[in-house]
What we know:
The complex is a heterodimer.
Chain A: H1 3-6, H2 9-44, H3 49-64, H4 67-77, H5 82-85, H6 100-125, H7 129-137, H8 142-172, H9 185-196, H10 199-228
Helix pairs in contact in A: 2-6, 2-9, 3-6, 4-6, 6-8, 7-8, 8-10, 9-10
Chain B: H1 2-38, H2 42-57, H3 60-81, H4 92-117, H5 121-129, H6 134-164, H7 176-187, H8 190-219
Helix pairs in contact in B: 1-2, 1-4, 1-7, 1-8, 2-4, 3-4, 4-6, 5-6, 6-8, 7-8
Amino acid sequence: MKWDIIFQPQNLELYATGILTTLWLLFSSLAIGAVLALIFALLLTGPWAAARWIVGAYTYVIRGTPLLIQIYLIYYGLGQLEWIQARWDDVWPWMYFKESFFCALLAFSLNTAAYTAEMLAGAIRETSAGEIESAQAYGMNRFQVMRHIVLPSALRRTLPAYSNEVVMMLQSTSLASAVPSMLDVTAAASRIYSTYYLPFEAYIAAAAIYLVASFCLIGMFRLAEKQFLAYLAPRKH
Amino acid sequence: MNAYYVAILQGSVLTVGVSLCALVVSILLGLLGASAKLSGRPVLGSVAAAYTTVIRGVPDLVVMLLVFYGGTIGLNHLLELAGSKATVDINPFLAGVLTLGFIYGAYMTETFRGAILSIPKGQMEAAVAYGMHPLQAFLRITLPQMVRYALPGFTNNWLVLIKSTALVSLIGLKEMTYLGKQASAATRSPFAFFLFTAALFLIYTTISLYVLRKLNARYSLGTKRGEL
């Protein structure tokens, strides 16, 4: 084992760049995914059958196929379609499809949106009937019931499942290394492996970074659950 | 053009093979891990705890690359130490099966542990009172009853495992994702080929869901559900 090579400044810098890319990918895809998920969850539980059907088909396809293929479809696939290629030199959204970061981000956001939407929709459906009834009895309309009663409690009850999703997403970002020119933690490790031929050291260092990141995320969610789910905790006395 | 679709279709056989073999490995490791965690012996318990925490905190891809590249070098080192001049290459199929099995063994451990804990304690006491030894009690009492509790978690793990086989393409196994990527590079029409590969995965996961739903119904026979 030659750990000193890993700790050389230029290699530490490589890992640091990787960590920044990984975290940036993780948090931006989670943010975009969360907004999309909220909209999708409302459509999934909403009154329009067509919307339920379309969003349902979307989540089914995303959840039934590997993320790696979704990344390939967006990165290699969309760039080949003529109606995108024809526009990607000057028309606004299309020019981003040239960038690998954007393609990875799009794939991750669409992926996490599908999983999170199903979780949220489940929590919305499980809101206790009594709460909704009493809200209606107070004269709240559909929108008010959603805004004041259903969503606040559903978002809280999704927290434990969502913490799993966030940790899974952190690990999924390692697939960004399959896109050329993306330098996340895994890609940094691969680069060090191929330069020095040191697979153990390079990948163990990457594994340690992911492990620490997972623990930090889990810790943050523990705190959040203590804060927001205190009313659901078992009584102490 | 059609030849590529046929090749991808043939690659799907390998995908099914890798995932099923990995499933067997992961079930065995999961049962071992769960019994280690429930054994009450501190050493076994902490080994199993370390296994599940580390594996579940590290991306599959990193574990896979570590086992594949690290394993090759490690084996060759061992051979060198033993005085042999031969070099080995790890077979991507075997590497894929072992790493996927090893990774999902950690998830199965948690699923099985929860399922075993859900079985009423009296069942075990009765088995002991009837003079069954631990293996008999496991096969006759625990196993048939834990299936029902384990199935939902098992279904999730299985679906994730199927999708993870796509990662094995990155270490060079010629399964359908790998062939899809090659076909795209050769023909310059990646969208169609990746869509085709994705559709094959979707068919595989859909069939799995159907079968597991039937199994769930079979193992829930005779259990009373609360009326709300």
